[in-house]
Amino acid sequence: MAALLSEEDRKYLVDLFQKEVKSEVKILFFTRKNKEECEYCELTQQILDELAETTDKIKIEVHDFDSEEDLVKKYNIGMAPAILMFDSKNKDMRIRYYGIPSGYEFSSLIEDVVATSKNGEVDLSESTLKKLQEIKEPVKLQVFVTPTCPYCPKAVLMAHKLAMQSPNFIGEMVEANEFPDLSMQYNVSSVPHIIINDGEGEFVGALPEDAFIDQVMSVVKGA
């Protein structure tokens, strides 16, 4: 199978990870053996394998979505392909990728690897951190994206930053084209489309940090 990363990309990642990745990152990858049920599982695993070849600090664990029911239940994995990240202390960063992180979303994956290697150290304002402390309820953010959307990584990374900072949050990237039934369920017609708590609230667009957290607060706190 032909390489997905160009030699130039590989060299860039080797240099970036040498400078920025501070500790080991464990990636759990959930796949399905039946290609008809998971068209992009094989390509997603190839992306992860090639990524791991650029640094010895990325470790990949491959799990079967259909047969490893206990693990799927433990991490509440709803579909495959699915990517989870854990820091050097084996802490779940509470970020999920459902679907192949290709196109513009590859940059999200890279930024998440770096942040995870720093034990979830991300740049959020004091105002956002204060609002996060007020939220005690579980919050699930699903960010529907497509690989060709240049604005989607901003929304994905914001959801993931919130999840890294708050134990009450889960931040999920969902590749809209790979999961058409889910996209149809939430009437996703443009991206990024953010669904809060399985439909309790929603908004569209890569909003600035303060507007993003305010949208979340308006749903979970009734503000």
UniProtKB/TrEMBL annotation:
Transmembrane annotation, as ranges: none
The protein's name in its UniProt record: Glutaredoxin
Domain Thioredoxin-like fold: 140-217
Cross-referenced Pfam families: Thioredoxin_3
